[in-house]
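Deviation from plan, reported transparently: 4'-deoxy-4'-aminopyridoxal-5'-phosphate complex.
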Amino acid sequence: MNYPETKLPKVGTTIFTQMSQLAAQHNALDLSQGFPDFDGPTALLDAVGHHISSGANQYAPMAGVPALREAIAEKVSRFYGGHYCAEREITITSGATEALFAAISAVVRTGDEVIMFDPAYDSYEPAVEINGGTTVRLQLSAPHFKVDWQAVRDAITAKTRLIILNSPHNPTGTTLTQHDLDTLADMLADTDILVLSDEVYEHIVFDGEQHQSVAGHEALRERSFVVSSFGKTYHITGWKVGYCLAPAALSAELRKVHQYLTFAISTPMQLAIADYMADAPNYGFELPAFYQQKRDLFCRLMASSRFELLPTQGTYFQLVDYRAIKDVPDIEFCQWLIEHAGVVAIPISVFYQTPPDTRIVRFCFAKGEATLKAAAERLVNL
Ligand code: PMP
Ligand code: GLN
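Because the crystal trials were delayed, the predicted structure below was used instead.
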């Protein structure tokens, strides 16, 4: 028989899977895929066992367990001053990945244009394209990767349905300011353009900076989906629990997709997170210092290397320019790095539609001190 032509011709195996496989094959130190090599808080882990043995083993409500949605409403209000109704405006999803896919599927139609910024997280474009939309990719430039709002204004057409933001930004570590959000809000004021704000690293910001959430922006909130992930916040990426905040009308559309994509998310995990959020309400305030200590340690250890470190304001990623070591494209450099130093990085060219001629790779510093020290020791010798 003839199988149908692929609906996603540009999609192959993600760079994260490729690099994790190479790391395992070469027994290399893995600073590639973004996940911590340490566990989340013990009380959170223990709470899952408690809920499983207490019988919380059947389907959760489609939109998420009420206690978790209420805990999120309370958190968002305390951190950003944005008020979301737990019943109608907060939906628990299978990680941020499902929230992003469901939000895009809920609003993007054939012929729609979606503006996003390169380098862009790899899940956005396939979600747009499988729904018949096209992406308009605007490039952020090294070393600061700031948005050029005039370029955004110029890119808006009658077909623009959605703009995707990501702050703190993976892979560059840059953040959006209040002024950025105000500029966007003014630009969109007389339009029906929607915003999808990927804020999975909302609690990983450095040097005393405050995360500027679209959830706390009065003018943007009414047109926005705001997505986050407990995986990043509580070091539990494998649990795949995330959420989406959106006004009731947008949440209703998102839930139509969520209802048939996953229907509901693991009950004991949701209950455990809800308990932990109630018991440790200030956790999100403490996380920046935890990760800043790791960023500073990694940067200090790398200071004597021939890598040039780019500024990182948030996320648990550090970009480095390697041109003083080897002048080859980044994918080739990553392969060389595995073979010659036994360390795995992520090439950033894969996050661009048209990769610029830079020599930059991404390291993940969400690792224990011993791993960071061992990796840096290998890297400074290059
Ligand atoms: N968005 C960004 C920017 C990410 O880095 C990630 C990484 N995991 C995700 C979304 C997906 O989050 P989750 O693992 O909760 O699906
Ligand atoms: N967000 C993670 C990263 O950027 C990867 C998640 C995944 O493997 N899809 O490394």
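The pocket of glutamine (ligand 2) is lined by residues 14, 16, 33-34, 170 (CB under 6 Å). We consider this an acceptable substitute for the interim report.
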